[in-house]
Amino acid sequence: MKKKIGSLPEISVRFLEAIEELGISAYKLAKEVPEISNSIMSHIKSGRNKPSDDVLNAFLKHFPQYNRSWLLAGYGERTNCKSGAIFVETNPPNAVLLENKPMPQSDVERIYEGLLEKSNAEISRLNREIGVLQTKVKTSQDEKEQMKNTIEDLQAQIEAYRDATAKYDGKTVDRKLPKYKNVVNN
Questions:
Q1: How far is residue 78's CA from residue 66's CA, in Å, rounded to a whole number?
Q2: Rounded to 5 degrees, what angle do the CA atoms 117, 123, 124 make?
Q3: pLDDT at 69
Q4: Is 62 exposed, middle or buried (0-12, 13-18, 19+ CB in 10 A)?
Q5: Which residues contact 186 (CB under 8 A, 6 or more apart)?
Q6: Cβ atoms of 23 and 79 closer than 8 Å
Q7: Domain of 163, in residue numbers
Q8: Helix (H, G, I), strand (E, B), or coil: what is residue 175?
Q9: Which CATH number belongs to the domain containing residue 53 in this structure?
């Protein structure tokens, strides 16, 4: 089932537009760029997957005329052709083109905020997971303590029964039960 290009994630749309602009098929792309198989292309076109970092890096390695910043985030020119500028990727706040044109501050802030939001969401998820694990550990410790107490109680009962039953002149005397206290059983 084919999705319309407009209903795909923006990064997929830019990637597919670049391939369309090159005028090559998925088959020919897979031949030229071995890291990008027909099945990968099929998943990107259907919207099942976005192009991975490996796919984008392989594409840019084989087609360096495309601007990395445009392909990844949609800013800047589509191609690097106007003066041979090549995007140098560093941490987003320091990202610049070799032409020495700084990335617009609003783009830097948007990228930074997006990364910060993702990081905070991951930290929250991990904190929840830690809480669940701490609860499980506490429950296990409580259960261990209960088992230890039960074992100690059973050992005490066994010892009491051993003490209560004694041999006296070859006959057993049960000193535990009050009604049979000091009574010899045959």
A1: 6
A2: 90
A3: 87
A4: middle
A5: 171
A6: no
A7: 109-174
A8: coil
A9: 1.10.260
| Residues 127-172 pLDDT 10s | 999 999 999 999 999 999 999 999 998 888 887 777 666 554 455 5
Which helix or strand (DSSP H or E) is residue 165 part of? strand 165-168
CA angle 91, 95, 98 (to 5 degrees): 140
Read off the amino acid at residue 50: K
pLDDT digits (tens, 9 = 90+) for 68-103: 888 888 888 888 765 444 444 433 433 434 444 555
Q: State whether residue 88 is helix, strand or coil.
A: strand
Task: Look at residue 99 in the predicted model and tell me its pLDDT.
Answer: 44
Place of tokens 């303590």: 145
Angle at 35 between CA 26 and CA 55, to 5 degrees: 80
Please identify, among 58, 79, 104, the residue that sits at the C-terminal boundary of a domain. Answer: 104
* 184 membership: H or E segment, kind and range: strand 184-185
The residues, ordered by sequence, that sit 6+ positions from 160 with a Cβ below 8 Å of its Cβ are 176
User: Residues 85, 86, 88, CA angle at the centre, nearest 5°?
Assistant: 130
Any alpha helices (H) in the chain, and if so which ranges? 10-22, 26-32, 38-46, 53-62, 68-73, 105-164
Question: In this structure, are 20 and 82 located in the same domain?
Answer: yes
